[in-house]
From TrEMBL:
Top-tier EC class: transferase
Protein's UniProt keywords contain Iron-sulfur: no
Protein name stated in the entry: Serine acetyltransferase
Originating species: Rhodosalinus sediminis
Organism classification: Bacteria, Pseudomonadati, Pseudomonadota, Alphaproteobacteria, Rhodobacterales
Gene3D superfamilies xrefs: Hexapeptide repeat proteins, serine acetyltransferase, domain 1
Key words, A-Z: Acyltransferase, Amino-acid biosynthesis, Transferase
Amino acid sequence: MPESRARLAELDPVWDRIRAEAEQAILDEPLLGGLIHSSVLHHASLARALAFRISMKLASGEMSEQILREIADEAYAADPDLVQAARADIAAVYDRDPACHRFLQPLLFFKGFQALQSYRLGHWLWREGRHDLAYFVQTRVSEMFGLDIHPAARVGQGIMIDHAHSIVIGETAVVGDNVSMLHSVTLGGTGKEESDRHPKIGSGVLIGAGAKVLGNISVGDCCRIAAGSVVLEDIPPKKTVAGVPARIVGEAGCAQPSVTMDHLLAQG
């Protein structure tokens, strides 16, 4: 790691805040002291804490926590962008989820964040050519958290997956930066073809609960997809779509819907 990057890694306000919140949480609820010490305060960096938390969640009789932790440590050491993505995801959850009051919460309690970081580990393995191990991580994420993201899918930073139940993101899907999606969203295909067959979601997009975006189509930056919609065609940037099949019903209404989290359609 270059010297400048090493110095930057030592300065981590997100990690400093998590540690401060962890210390306060133990004062507020001493019964959680063991969990918080082992998950947060025992570790020198966010990368080490993430490796521990992911390995504890994904471990099973088929693969031990120790082996998974070694794999995660290797990934975070090799690719600092994994930790940067986690920082951006924590900030996104804190900013957009009214149920999140501390940076500590996603790391300890929110399965959307934990599943996303586990996917990121699987995606790193996929890029390294370790496909079978990546598939194993995908399987454990599905079993543990109830959502299924193919390790080959490409997902940006600053992602907020709220509630996270029954999310499906297919193999050739692409998700831009600063996207928010709610439970039961599907980014899927429309048949059994093996080519590029999944949606390309732009940055700043808000995807409502139960929405289905199907096929190799493009959703432009800063769009809103209403809850329960089925999107089968390209959407230009900064539009709101709703219905089955989805149709453009207006403008997005703001610069970045994923941040404002406004799901209501204007009444005409």
